Amino acid sequence: MDTSEFQRARSPEAKRLREASILEAARALGRERGIRNVTLTDIAAEVAMHKSALLRYFETREEIFLRLTAEGWQEWSQALSARLRESTDRGPAAVAQAIAATLAARGMFCDLLAHAPLNLERNVSLDAVRDFKLATFAARVPIIAAVRQHLPGLSDQESVDLIATAVALAGALWQIANPGAEVAALYRSDPRLAHAVVEVEPRLARILTATIRGMTTWDREPPETRGQ
Predict the structure, then answer these.
(1) Is 9 exposed, middle or buried (0-12, 13-18, 19+ CB in 10 A)?
(2) Of 165, 168, 38, 34, which is closest to residue 108 (Cα–Cα)?
(3) Is the pTM of this model over 0.90?
(4) Which of 2, 44, 50 is nearest to 23 (CA)?
């Protein structure tokens, strides 16, 4: 895009709008190319800015994507909490399916979840990390409340552990399930590699169901009956 017409935002409102346009450009590029393949130069070009001008709004490429990860947490929290509140299905399988389905439907968020601890949190200021962690903490609160409505035997800490397991697995499974077109074609062309073809939602649902069942039954059974 032509960067000759770019004008620096002067007012607070103009700056907010400029930041929003940068985030939207990064979001669109991330969906199209995958997070690892989007550079700061790509984002700057998408909003018709020089890279040096973009750095007046965000310190690094990682800060941009960390902001998008925080927004993704908030959006997923609202969607999952609403689904659980509205659902009449109870029990481990129903909760696991709700978590898995809402994560699998958000491919870019899963992509961001994998990159956040690996690199997005490592090339930003401490203030940016603090803001991100506080945002994820806030997003967890309604999820915990909704989960415990369905699984009252689960403690707050167990609910936190469940969410942490879900997002970590979703990020990893999404990467495995999206290896690139040529590698994906290879997996599907050779029956010996069939095990490498991964579908995120069903596998995540199975693992989370087993995790919840373990949390809600194993620790509450007398030691002598475990494994029977």
Answers:
(1) middle
(2) 34
(3) no
(4) 44
Which amino acid makes up residue 57?
Answer: Y
Structure token pair of residue 99: 């978590």
- The two tokens of residue 79 are 């969607």
For residue 213, what are its two tokens? 């069942």
Q: What's the average pLDDT block by block, 10 residues per block, for the chain (228 residues)? A: 50 86 96 94 94 93 97 97 89 94 97 96 95 97 94 91 97 92 86 86 96 76 44
Q: How far is CA 97 from the centre of its chain?
A: 16
Amino acid 114 reads A
Residue with tokens 């690892």: 36
The length of the chain is 228
Q: 176 is written with which tokens?
A: 């495995």
